[in-house]
Design brief:
The protein has one domain (16-235): Rossmann fold. Helices cover 31% and strands 14% of the residues. It is built from seven helices and six strands, in the order H-E-H-E-H-E-H-E-H-H-E-E-H. The protein starts with a helix and ends in an 18-residue tail after the last helix.
Amino acid sequence: MSGVRRGLLALGVAGVLAASVGTSYAGSPRAEPSAHAAIRPVEGRELVVLVHGLGRSRLSMLPLAWSLERRGYRVLNWGYSSTSATIPELGAELSRDLASLDGPPPERIHFVGHSLGNIIIRWVVANRPPEHVGRVVMLAPPNQGSHSADRYAPWLGWLLRPLPELRTAPGSTARTIPTPPGVEIGVIAGRYDGKVSVPETFLPGAKARVVIPAAHTFIMDRRDVGRLVVRFLYTGDFAPPPPVPSAPPLSPS
């Protein structure tokens, strides 16, 4: 089978698989523009790198990108082919793109991922981290693998190359990437995810974790998720800061 036909078949299967497990699909193999074209012209001192999930494109992360821009962050909404490369290959590609960014270097580089995108982020931070790594927010991450990958990998792993790496087996890529010390990671899980269960999002060493009443596909589009992402990037926690106590009334003189 030619590479072009294999890629088209992989896209079709990814679309069917995504629909069957609650994920919409948009994108094409190698059709994503370069990462540099995805950098929005915002003069923020801190960069947030967004990484979409399997069978998606960076369009799925646009609402979150806009939300972060409004709060003064520079945003790299990174696009990639999620069917034709392994997690280490995708991680190496992201690392190269980060090393060749134009403009002044950011003071800190944060990461926000959805689903598979989180495992790519973990690989980058563990193996080829950029300078000044900031915080990481994970949306519906299969950190312990995914039962959906267990179900479909035996049949579709040859077409969707990252899929076998997302299995729940102890030696899978998702379960063996180490968590670097000193990196603050927050995990947002969906109670009604349907693709990645709440226990499968667990990551040893994560600083904070929250479970919200959300499904997998559009978790990044929720306003409460946008607020949680910004709060963690800013404070390193999902909990709101305690209210400032009001001053006692002045006693009459």
